[in-house]
Amino acid sequence: MYKVLATIFLFSILFSACGSPKTANFPEIAPTSLSTQTDSPLPTATLTKTPRPTITPKPSPTPCPEIIEPVILNKISLYYYCGATQKDQELINEYIEYANNDSPVTIEAEIHVYMNIDEFVQDKYEYVRAHHYGDTLDDVRRSIGEGGGETGSGLGWWYIGGKWWKQWTQPSERQEFVFHEYHHLIQTSLNNGRPTNNKFAWLTEGGATFFAQEQLLAQNIKPTERQDVLTECDYTLEQLSNFNDAPNIGCIYGEGKYAVRLLVTYWGKDKYYDLWRSLGVNTLSVAMKKTYGITLGNFYTLFSEYQSTDFKAIPVFVTPTP
Predict the structure, then answer these.
(1) Residue 235: Cβ-neighbour burial (10 angstroms; 0-12, 13-18, 19+)
(2) What number of CA atoms fall less than 13 Å from residue 171's CA on the CB side?
(3) Pairing mode, if any, of strands 76-80 and 109-114?
(4) How many folded domains does the chain comprise?
(5) Domain of residue 312, residue span
(6) Within a domain: residue 34?
């Protein structure tokens, strides 16, 4: 109503200022009864308040301690970050103690265990970025996905949150993860911490996979086998030497496991550990010759024969004449 009155008032001022137009023929407009509008009572709005549902406040999360006291297992210091329950810690401690007892060398290391991927990425961004996980924080998050571990010389960064740890149901799955990453500590202890994944990734990851599953079998626990090794993987070991250009990263683990099984079947576990000691000062070709008395090419040929049987029949090996 106030807008109508203001408009009429403004129009009357303009009309009087310009004078009365005597020659213009405006159509006649029936007068509007302002009194009717003025005297009519304004409608009264009826507001009905809908009661809001009662919201139960979520309990505040336990803040992360600024200083984390490590769990000491022999010469390993374990740091557990936010989200790691008491049960999680007990299981990991148990698995590491078992692996310690089976290790050919005393491991001195720090292991940092994360359950939250954002916390892991933010804290260790530069470290994981340097290990083929992308350039940006989002790249690193996508690359790590549901879980992962990075283990170097005397250091382990393990992200075991997400569905990997929480939804694993078989006894083998959690243990194999811990045993696998622990074996990398053995490798880097034996070879003086020399980088390996971009030189002979099949040996690094294949060794960790093979020995982790051997430790499960020693406890009468059946490992979870990856069937895609037989259906999707048909590469040479040379093609699986470098993480950055491998045609299928999963095959590094799968085929690598069978390659290490071949080494251990022929020459035993102690020789495998000797190979890693030699890798501390030698290339793989030299270390293979010094440890096993064969060339790297000899072993690649042997593996190819094994691969042709879908890894079911160990080929007969004749030591080449020097």
Answers:
(1) middle
(2) 9
(3) parallel
(4) 2
(5) 192-322
(6) no
**Which two three-digit tokens encode residue 243?**
């993480």
Cα-based distances in Å from 25 to 13, 20, 28, 171, 247: 20, 12, 9, 97, 88
CATH number at residue 242: 1.10.390
**For residue 301, how far is the Cα from the chain centroid?**
34
Looking at residue 233, its amino acid is C
Cβ-contact 284, 296 below 8 angstroms: yes
Terminal C-alpha separation, the chain: 110
Instruction: Write down the pTM of the prediction.
Output: 0.75
pLDDT one-digit tens code per residue, 107-129: 998 888 888 777 777 776 666 66
- Residues 29-88: pLDDT tens digits? 444 444 444 454 544 544 444 454 444 544 444 556 667 899 999 999 999 988 888 988
Q: Are residues 165 and 197 located together in one domain of the fold?
A: no
At 99, give phi and psi (nearest 5°): -65, -35
Q: What is the Cα–Cα distance from 118 to 95, expressed in whole angstroms?
A: 25
